Amino acid sequence: MIPPSTALNPSRSLDRLLAEIQFLQSAARFRELPAPEVPEIAFAGRSNAGKSTALNVLVNRRRLAFASKTPGRTRLINLFALTDPEGEVGRLVDLPGYGYAAVDATTQRLWKTELSKYLGERRNLAGLILVTDIRHALGPLDQQMLAWFAPRGLPIHVLLTKADKLNRQEQNRAMSKVAAFLDAHPSRSPQIQWSHSCFSGLKRTGKEQVLDVMAAWLGLSRPGLAQIPSDPHVSGPTI
């Protein structure tokens, strides 16, 4: 396993690498993935949670990840390379959305198999961004995703999307519920960072905290980020 970095490299900026991010490849099955040579951050979530939109906003691209009006259309594991002049530094991995009822049963079983393999066996995985709609945060399928991944003992950041759909009080209430759920999770270790924050793709707000988390996981620098956040209970402000 390639563990998350414990020190930041000031010469490598996540923001600069994101500005040059490039599509690497797609894979339908775990065995088709590229060699696990650099750390990867995976993005997972229900098909209608706004995962592709979040990815596009985080990397400041309009169509890096395909945001379809038809949930469930993204059926491949899509990898994007962060590269500097010396080569690949890390990858962002867009996992197929799960839980879309219109996808046939065979495809659903395939997704479940390949997602569980990736989350359970990919040895260069540095952390998971779990994307969930703040209005229905951490539903049964999201909880199943956490159950698959938590035993790996790797960091998790819960990204509560579509925060613009709620007012400030409703956001606070949703954040408190997520915090309580994560605190009580039986697989949570106090040594492993589990964090959460609000995000709005429509308003393009809530980017900074999740980018700080990603930089820390990859051992990259960001303006004002001096070290990896040490408090696993930290949560971002409402937006």
Explained architecture:
The protein is of the alpha/beta class and 239 residues long. It has a single domain, classed as Rossmann fold, CATH 3.40.50. Helices cover 29% and strands 23% of the residues. It has helices at 14-19, 51-58, 105-121, 140-149, 168-184, 207-218, and strands spanning 9-13, 22-27, 40-45, 77-84, 87-94, 125-133, 156-161, 194-198, 220-221. Strands 2-4-5-3-6-7-8 form a 7-stranded mixed β-sheet, with helices on both faces. Strand 6, helix 4 and strand 7 form a beta-alpha-beta unit. The chain starts with 8 loop residues before the first strand and ends in an 18-residue tail after the last strand.
Mean pLDDT: 85
CATH class: Alpha Beta
Arrangement of strands in the largest sheet? 2-4-5-3-6-7-8
Main sheet characteristics? 7 strands, mixed
Could you give the distance between the termini?
36 Å
**Can you write the helix and strand succession as a string?**
EHEEHEEHEHEHEHE
Number of domains: 1
Class per helix and strand makeup: alpha/beta
The CATH architecture comes to 3-Layer(aba) Sandwich
